[in-house]
Amino acid sequence: MATRMNPDLKKERESASFDPEKITNFLYGGPEKLRRKRELESLALNDPDFQHEDLNFMSREQQYETQLKKGIAMITKMKELNITDFWDQYYYTTAVLVSDGYPMSVHERMFLPTLRGQATEQQKEKWLKMAENYAIVGTYAQTEIGHGTFVRGLETTATFDPKTQEFILNTPTLSASKWWPGGMGKTSNYVVLMAQLYIRGKSYGVHPFMLQIRSLEDHKPMPGVTVGDIGPKFGYDFMDNGFLALNNVRIPRENMLKKYSRVEPDGTYVKPPSTKLTYGTMVLVRAGIVMSSSRVLARAVTIATRYSCVRRQSEMKPGHPEPQVLDYVTQQYKLFPNLAAAYAFWLTGQTMMSVYNKSSSQIEKGDISVLPELHALSAGLKALSSARADVGMEECRLACGGHGYSHASGLPRLYTNSTPAATAEGEHVVLMLQTARYLMKSYTQSVQGEKLAGSVAYLSGVQPVPVAGRTRNMLDLGVLCDAYEHRAARLVREAAEQLRSEMQAGKDQADAWNATSVDLLKAATAHSQYFVVRNFAERLTDTTLDSSVFAVLTRLCQLYALHGLVTNSGDFLEDDYLTGADIRQARRHINTLMAKLRPDAVALVDAFDYPDGILNSILGRYDGNVYEHLLEWAKASPLNITDVHQSYQKYLKPFLQANRAKL
Ligand SMILES: CCCCCCCCCCCCCCCC(=O)SCCNC(=O)CCNC(=O)[C@H](O)C(C)(C)COP(=O)(O)OP(=O)(O)OC[C@H]1O[C@@H](n2cnc3c(N)ncnc32)[C@H](O)[C@@H]1OP(=O)(O)O
Ligand SMILES: Cc1cc2nc3c(=O)[nH]c(=O)nc-3n(C[C@H](O)[C@H](O)[C@H](O)COP(=O)(O)OP(=O)(O)OC[C@H]3O[C@@H](n4cnc5c(N)ncnc54)[C@H](O)[C@@H]3O)c2cc1C
């Protein structure tokens, strides 16, 4: 194994204008947190129990088994090592699982949070203790073959039987079968089942129920339960996403998770303070996806940037040595906006999590007034960040040329395992339209003279009237924030006006909404993008930032804002808020910023601090020794175990021989 550093990467690191460790500290919340992160990562990465053959060389069954085995070892070790803090667990598990998950990740991410959020103290005593100690394994069974988005339209029923004090669970139609829950296919023995509650023939909407689906003795399906794996998918090979059909399965009345609503023994329904509290787990996961989207984009851009410094191709000037491909400005234009976006969303993810934590503690104290804002913000930012990561990861893969298509790059697996974030936990458009719904309401309130707060406060401000011929400094973050604010406010206002005019033209509310939905989507996207830009700019007001770090982060913030502005220039030009000259100036600034960022590119991706073991990419190796490791990796491919594959004897040899004999 080569240990020397690729000379190009070495030079890149020596030329940086700042010490990457300073940015790493900023990203991870200070030296102590960073030290702990590294300690946990190296603990996991050096543990022989987590070493195994490359998953890319395995069948789906093998991947499932490997990740299950590894996941169990991971949980056992976290308990032994007393790793309990959220971030400690995050760093440790990320280092164990690399670009993948494991069959019990929905247990962690949704089953436990649902028990914590929806169960009474008594119910927690009964199930949460068992679930936290892995005496049972569960998942979150909401989506059905026929309905995922339309939660109110779910068809699974939980009918209360007052005689026996039980609920009778049924999936009465094929379309009611649960479909997709992670870990349900083969692993889980419990689910939180989201089902329509019926009492004396009347429906009371979707509620959560604890249901045992497999025997605790032999893991066989419980009576009345049909369960299995839904088959191979675009990615997520290690995960047994499952189907579930129920035929008159009876559970005790106590199995309804009843922190917020319940059914009394006589069948009286006690309603929750808000029906939307049932959706609490989804809000938590959406908030988390904002953060995880930034992390996957940071990984993709680390891989592509390092590789672009190692890779040399073509002649920029006749007769001159081949340049590093990162010296092509078009390559910088592929990568640097993604680098800037990774930083922007990293900081947005941190803000989203702190908004979530603050709001959920208020909700816990009974103040549900914060729920609409939390839902709207998390929905929009989840949709925006996952879509941005999707596009960015693909651009990074394309930026690696042919080698980007190989699993050795780590990029295909990163993409296929992360792209569900755009669909799962609320499809992109559906969630943006939820944000738009909140924006429309807020806009109406502001028109009626109410003062708005939180992420929509700007809607009650007076939007600056465009001034013809005004020249602006398009690098000024204040100017950029104002431009994004103006665009968002205008698009919200115009969508509201369009909605009203559709209704005035005779459409009912629903048809008018549908007819306006492209404008609504645009407004919600602009609102979410404004939040990201403003959040980035606000983080730069931190006076403790080192001046070299401040300079380079400011460039990234400017690049993120300018790139979004140029890409969506029509939005800023439509009402003459910006002029053609402003956009031209913005394009020039992008070029200048890219030139300034070029010497810092490697240091900026190094600052994300992904060790090779987590990056899991030959192209993105820290030492840049790509080609020798590509060859070594290819040699390990199962097709190379023998020089002549057995199929030669079976198929190719007789075929070729017969053809030769005919000549
Ligand atoms: C290293 C690699 C890492 C990679 C990392 C990748 C991660 C990759 C993930 C993998 C996978 C994970 C595991 C996936 C696990 C599932 O996917 S679990 C299933 C998730 N399912 C969904 O998200 C379904 C989406 N649908 C919904 O949430 C809702 O049904 C909808 C669309 C919001 C509509 O709900 P609805 O009840 O019909 O509501 P609607 O009539 O539109 O509105 C009614 C009111 O409720 C409000 N409301 C709706 N929802 C809420 C809410 N949640 N809170 C508060 N209010 C709400 C509305 O704002 C509205 O308010 P008003 O305007 O009336 O005041
Ligand atoms: C990898 C993965 C893991 C998952 N894990 C789980 C799990 O653990 N538990 C679980 O319960 N579920 C899980 N799901 C299911 C997931 O939550 C749903 O697939 C998701 O919410 C999208 O719903 P859908 O499939 O019904 O899409 P659909 O709603 O059918 O979307 C299809 C199209 O219709 C459009 N559309 C739908 N409604 C509207 C509307 N109102 N307005 C405008 N356009 C609309 C969408 O934009 C989309 O383009 C998982 C899914 C995946 C891919």
UniProtKB/TrEMBL annotation:
Residues holding FAD: T143, G182
Pathway field: Lipid metabolism; peroxisomal fatty acid beta-oxidation
A molecular-function term among this protein's GO annotations: fatty acid binding
Entry annotation: catalytic residues: E425
Superkingdom of this protein's organism: Eukaryota
Domain Acyl-CoA oxidase C-terminal: 477-657
Cofactor(s) needed: FAD
Gene3D superfamilies per UniProt: Acyl-CoA dehydrogenase/oxidase, N-terminal domain (1.10.540.10), Butyryl-CoA Dehydrogenase, subunit A, domain 2 (2.40.110.10), Butyryl-CoA Dehydrogenase, subunit A, domain 3 (1.20.140.10)
Record field: catalytic activity: tetradecanoyl-CoA + O2 = (2E)-tetradecenoyl-CoA + H2O2; decanoyl-CoA + O2 = (2E)-decenoyl-CoA + H2O2; octanoyl-CoA + O2 = (2E)-octenoyl-CoA + H2O2; dodecanoyl-CoA + O2 = (2E)-dodecenoyl-CoA + H2O2
Compartments where located: Peroxisome
An example Gene Ontology CC term for this record: peroxisome
Keywords (A to Z) from UniProt: FAD, Fatty acid metabolism, Flavoprotein, Lipid metabolism, Oxidoreductase, Peroxisome, Phosphoprotein
Protein family membership: Belongs to the acyl-CoA oxidase family.
PANTHER family: ELECTRON TRANSPORT OXIDOREDUCTASE (PTHR10909), PEROXISOMAL ACYL-COENZYME A OXIDASE 1 (PTHR10909:SF250)
Name the record gives this protein: Acyl-coenzyme A oxidase
